[in-house]
Amino acid sequence: MTEEPDPMGDYIFPHRPTKRKLKIHRWIYAGFILGLMYLLFVHDVQAHEFYSIECCNEQDCAPLPDGAVKITKTGYLWDGELFVYGERRIKYSPDGKYHGCAYRYSGNKLCLYVPPQGF
Known about the structure:
The protein has about 120 residues and is of the alpha+beta class. It has one helix at about 20-40; strands spanning about 60-65, 70, 75-80, 80-85, 90, 100, 110-115.
């Protein structure tokens, strides 16, 4: 007498994923979590993230082109306006570039973000 094969023995229930599918899902979830962590913690500093409220209204500040700021004995010269060393309008620029804040229509200068100067 031979044993008859179980007709449901090879059937994979759709609601129970196989071990291989579980491993793939774990990798997908791990990749998603790592990508999310990168976006939250490791991304480069965007310019608007370090503009202070007194200088910028989300539209008054922008990176300046190379050569737009001249360093003088008494301060920084930007577009004909002198920012004297020690002024409160001079701010630190963490991205190593110059940024200027001015009213869009009048052109009045609000702040100048300067990178650290080498000696």
